[in-house]
Predict the 3D structure of the following.
Amino acid sequence: MTIPVTIIDSFKQFSLIAENVSHKIWSYNQDSSGWNLAKGSRNVTVCWKPSTEFGGNLYRGEGIIEDIPEKIIPFMYLPEYRMKWDKALKSYSILERLDEDTVICHTVTHSYGMGLISSRDFVDLVKIKKYEGGIITTNSRSIDYQACLPSPSCVRGYNNPCGYVCSSLPQSPGHSRLTIFIQPDLGGMLPRSLVESALPNNIINLINDAQAGLKSAGY
């Protein structure tokens, strides 16, 4: 059976996008200059700097998770785990698996403020990549995907390059550092100031909810 050229071209395009996003996430992780403290809690610190991708900010959240990267990363992105602990999500599914480490996901968030802030949805290309030293990353960016077009029930958002970087802590066996990078464009008519003020709390909640989910699941 001959595979249509359009399918091959799409796979090549997605592969190039995934590699480009992986490079950017790793560069964010290596970048130690220009970060400003946004918010800190007992377990999580969130910083920001102006994004080079759009008119908003790039956020970096860091926390310590009691588990190893090989368990944390699947728990963070696979639907069978994430829907059990991520309170922000209305639904989350894999639309297509391109290869063992690359998927296309559809995420729908809950509405907020008695419906004043509408539900958002995102279609993202996600690549899992491993580095020396036991570091595992997720590398994501929103894409146009004809099999999942925008719906009137949601506002279609756009995730600029984002992801997780998870590394074990040799000095604390069984613990890992989880670093999260996000820079979403939520679309719609939301004031940018409102979005930027909410994102640090969202990152803190994400890391804390993941830790609580790991403990309760006994995963």
